[in-house]
Specification:
Radius of gyration: 18 Å
InterPro entries: Fum_R/Succ_DH_flav-like_C_sf, Fum_Rdtase/Succ_DH_flav-like_C, SdhA/FrdA/AprA
Strand order of the largest sheet: 3-4-5
Order of helices and strands: HEHHEEEE
Structural class: alpha+beta
Largest sheet: 3 strands, antiparallel
Pathway: Carbohydrate metabolism; tricarboxylic acid cycle
Organism: Psychrosphaera algicola
Protein name: Fumarate reductase/succinate dehydrogenase flavoprotein-like C-terminal domain-containing protein
Strand content: 15-25%
Distance between the termini: 25 Å
CATH architecture of one domain: Up-down Bundle
Pfam family, one: Succ_DH_flav_C
Shape: elongated
Length: 138
């Protein structure tokens, strides 16, 4: 983190994140809205490195806590977008306008994400066999 001042603060970016996720990645979604939000999240990740923390307190520093909370919220939001983009069906409470049907139970998969070297990796695991069936770099 550095003290580079930008028009974007942690609190304003956090609010934009909440609004964007609600508008683009809510219960009803499609590829366009998911890709739009994912592109915005990637941009915010880059902007986050430019946001400074003014407080130099070595004790409990609220600004540092908020910075890392936002960084984690962005990571979770990106994980949700990547998973939703790769789930080309409607399942449970999540409805894809571009994929309105639910796949047969024997084609159902769990979506598993892991973070390695600042890169998200998505693995699909078959519900029926519990074996890995696909690995997608996210």
């Amino acid at each position: 983190m550095n003290n580079y001042q930008t028009a974007c603060s942690v609190s304003s970016m956090s609010l934009k994140l909440k609004v964007g996720m609600s508008n683009n990645v809510g219960v009803i979604r499609d590829q366009t809205s998911l890709r739009t939000q994912l592109a915005q999240l990637n941009e915010w990740f880059e902007q986050l490195s430019l946001i400074g923390v003014k407080s130099q307190s070595k004790l409990y520093n609220d600004e540092v806590v908020e910075y890392f909370e936002l960084k984690n919220m962005l990571l979770v939001a990106k994980s949700i977008c990547i998973s939703a983009l790769h789930r080309e069906e409607s399942r449970g409470a999540h409805y894809r306008l571009d994929f309105p049907t639910t796949l047969a139970e024997n084609k159902a998969v769990h979506s598993l994400l892991r973070l390695k070297h600042n890169q998200l990796y998505l693995t699909h695991k078959s519900v029926a066999t519990e074996k890995n069936i696909e690995v997608v770099n996210g």
